[in-house]
Amino acid sequence: MTWWSDLVAAEPDFAARVRARFAVRKHGTMATLRRDGSPRISGTEFDFGDDGQLRLGSMAGAVKALDLRRDPRVALHSPTEDAPPDDPSTWDGDAKIAGRAHEEQPAEDGSHSFRIELTEVVLTRVGDPPDHLLIESWHPTRGLHRRTRH
Q1: What pLDDT digit, counting tens, does each position of 91-109 carry?
Q2: Alpha-carbon torsion, ordered 57, 60, 62, 68, to 10 deg
Q3: Lower Cβ count inside 10 Å, N or C end of the chain?
Q4: Taking the model in full, what pTM does it have?
Q5: Is residue 142 part of a domain?
Q6: Is residue 84 part of a domain?
């Protein structure tokens, strides 16, 4: 299993840039799988803990938590910030994390907390010069790769 702390150890600069994209606002987006296999999109808060774990939580009995209990596959998307229309080159990009959710001990109020095992981390941003996108992706077995899209 690969955790946030493993990414930080392997690629600290990349991990810091990804974490910065998740920190631009309090709420991001997560995708889970419904019982019938169709996707469910939910808002959520992310916690990059001091203990090297990436966590997310939900209220007791929330459908997103029930989805994760049934099928732990999850995709997380950072909050999005738009660049000014007159200068799209200033867009700082967005980050995505795919993984598996591992439920921790429920809280006294029944709320849920999940640690996220990483299977892929992607950062997309405007390149330099700003005539292309730079896509950086990290996989636990393949490491960090960069590619461009014009």
Answers
A1: 889 999 999 999 998 788 9
A2: 60
A3: C
A4: 0.93
A5: no
A6: yes
